[in-house]
Amino acid sequence: MDQITKHLMEEFASQNSLTKLAEDKLFEHFAAYVATSDHLSDSLDTTDVVVGSGGDCAIDAITFIVNGVAVTDPAEISDLAATNKYVDASIVIVQAERSSSFDAAKIGSIGFGIADFFSESSQLPQNNDIKDAKIVADALFKQAGLFTRGNPVCFVYYVTTGKWLNDPNLLTRRDAAKSDIEGLGLFREVRFDCLGADQVQALYRKTKNAVSRQIVFERKLTIPAIAGVDQAYMGVLAASEYLKLITQDNGEIASSLFHDNVRHWMEWNSVNSDIRQTLLDTAQQHLFPILNNGITIVAQRINPVGDRFVIEDYQIVNGCQTSHVLFACREQLAMNLYVPVKILATKNEGIRNSVIRATNRQTEITDDQFFALEDFPKKLESYFPTFEAQYRLYYERRPRQYASENVEKVRIINMPTLVRAYASIYREFPHRTTKNYKGLLKEVGNEIFGKDHVLSAYYAAAFAHYRLDYLFRNNHLAAKLRPARYHILLAARLIHFPEPPAKPNSHEMNRNAEELMKILRDEDKSKELFAKAAEVVESLAQGNLNRDHIRTEPFTDSLLKHYGRKVRT
C-alpha cells in the first residue's frame, strides 16, 4: 500500500475509533466509506455495512440507501415507505483488496457473488451478516409497487491500492460481470467501477470538503446592502447551470442540499405533475420563469468574478419540488430554459431561518415542521462541545457540518442518532427506534427536544451511545448484540435508576443525567456497566437475538419488569 493511501486510512481509523482493526479489515471499512459517501449525505457508520469474512458472496460491504437514508433494518424501509409514499433506492456494493493490482478472476467472482446474493435461490454459503443483508434486500424489493422512479440503482466498486489503466482484458471481465448483474432484471441501472489509489484518495478528500460549485449567472440583479447579509442576487438562471448546483459528480441528485427545506420531495402530486407538464411541453417551456415561484439558495460564501459565481457550503431552502422535477426532466429541457432564483450569502442563523420561513409560506407549514430551525437544536449544538476534550461530542444540525474540521467522526451525533438514544434511555422506547421511528419524530418539539428540556439528559444519552458504539467497534461486545443496542442503552440506565424517568424539564432529570455521566466518564466503569447491561439483555432474550424478537414492545416490557417496573398499558 502506498504511503498516501496508508496515511489517509490511518486518519480515517483514528477518527472512527477503528485503530485496533487488522489492516485488511480496516481497508474494507475505509473502502466502504469512500465509495458509499459519494451517494449518501449523512454520515456512514461502516460497522453497519461491512460484511466481509468467510461466506460473503465476494461482498465486503453493502449499503442500502432508501429515500436518501442508509437503512439496516427491514422495518426502516417500511417506515420510510409509509411516510414518503414512494421508495427510491440505491444499493452500494464494495469489494476491497489491498493488492497493488486489479485481478480479472476477482472481477468475475464479484459479479457471480452479487448475482447469487440477489437470486431467489442462493447457492453460495452466507455468513450471518450477509444473511441479514439479504433480509433487508428482500424487504426492499417487496416495496416494488412504490418504485415510482424505477427499480433501484446498483453501484458496484472493486477497490484496490493499484492503478486502473483500462486494461482491455479487465474491461471485458468488468463488462461481463456488469451484464450478469443486469441480467437479474432487478435494477434500472448497474454501474461497475474499479477504483485505484488515486480515486480512493480523491474520494476521501472529497468527504472532508463542503459542497462547492461554479456556475455562470448572467441575468441577475444585485440586491442592495442588507444588514447581516454578505451578498444577495436575484434573477433567472439557465436551467443547465442550475442543474450543476444540484447534481453530484456521480450523476445523482444531491439530496443533502435540501436538508434545510421543511418539505421533502412529494413525488408526483398534482403540483409537481403540473410543473413536469410545463417542462415537457415545448410550447409552454418558455413560460416557466413566470409560472414558477422560484428557488432560494442560502450559502455561506459567494465568490463572484463577473458572471462566474463560485457558491460554497449552500442549501436550497425553497424549491425542493421544482429542483426534483427539473432533475427528472433534465434530458428534455430546452437550451434557453431559465429558472427564477434568489441567491444570498449569510452566516447569520436568524436571517437564514427567517428566509426559510418566509419562502416556505406559499403552502401551509406547521410549527412542528419548522422546529429543527428553532432554539433547542442550536442550544444542543453550542452545549455539546463545552466539555473537556476527552468527553466532548458535537451535535450535527446539517449533514457534513463538521466535514472540513478535524473532528473525530465517532464524536459527531446527528439528529436521528440522538432521538433514538434519548428515546431509548429516557422515553423507554428502544423498540421504536427502527420499527416506528416516524412515530418518535412526531414527539419532536414536545416529549423529545422540548423547548424547556434540560440539555444534560441529551448529552448523557449521546455519550452513552458513543461509549456503547466504541465497545462494539473494538469488539469488547459481541457483534451479535448489535440488534439489541438500544435495549442495552436502556438497561444501562435501569441498573442505576430503575424508577420511571423524571420530568424532562426538572432538576431531578438534570441530577440523574449528571450521575449517569459520572459513570460514563470513567472508561472502566462505563465498560463494566455496559457489560452488565448486555448480560441482562442477552439473558432475557434467551439466546434469541434476532431483531424481530428483540425490537418489540413485549421485550422492552420484559426488561422493565426485570427491574421491578410495571408493564405499561
Question: Features of this protein?
Answer:
13 strands; single chain; 42% helix; 3 domains; five-stranded mixed sheet; 569 residues; alpha/beta; six-stranded mixed sheet
* Main pleated-sheet profile: 6 strands, mixed
Total number of beta strands: 13
Sheet with most strands: strand arrangement: 6-10-9-11-8-7
Q: How many helical elements? A: 21
Percent in helix: 40-55%
How much is the average pLDDT?
88
The value of Rg in angstroms is: 24 Å
**What fraction of the residues are assigned to beta strands by DSSP?**
5-15%
Secondary structure topology:
Layout: H1 3-15, H2 23-37, E1 61-66, E2 69-71, H3 74-84, E3 89-96, H4 104-118, H5 128-141, E4 153-159, H6 168-182, E5 189-195, H7 197-207, E6 212-216, E7 219-222, E8 231-238, H8 239-246, H9 270-280, H10 288-291, E9 295-305, E10 308-318, H11 320-328, E11 338-345, H12 349-359, H13 375-383, E12 394-396, E13 412-414, H14 415-425, H15 437-441, H16 455-473, H17 485-496, H18 507-521, H19 523-541, H20 547-550, H21 553-562
Helix pairs in contact: 2-7, 3-5, 4-6, 9-11, 14-16, 14-17, 16-18, 17-19
Task: Describe the overall structure.
The chain is of the alpha/beta class and 569 residues long. The protein folds into three domains: 3-207, no CATH class; 212-365, no CATH class; 372-562, no CATH class. It has helices at residues 3-15, 23-37, 74-84, 104-118, 128-141, 168-182, 197-207, 239-246, 270-280, 288-291, 320-328, 349-359, 375-383, 415-425, 437-441, 455-473, 485-496, 507-521, 523-541, 547-550, 553-562, and strands at residues 61-66, 69-71, 89-96, 153-159, 189-195, 212-216, 219-222, 231-238, 295-305, 308-318, 338-345, 394-396, 412-414. The strands form three sheets. It has a six-stranded mixed sheet with strand order 6-10-9-11-8-7. It has a five-stranded mixed sheet with strand order 2-1-3-4-5, with helices on both faces. A two-stranded parallel sheet has the order 12-13. A hairpin with a 2-residue loop joins strand 1 (61-66) and strand 2 (69-71). Helix 4 (104-118) runs parallel beside helix 6, helix 9 (270-280) crosses helix 11 (320-328) and helix 17 (485-496) crosses helix 19 (523-541). The longest helix has 19 residues, at 455-473.
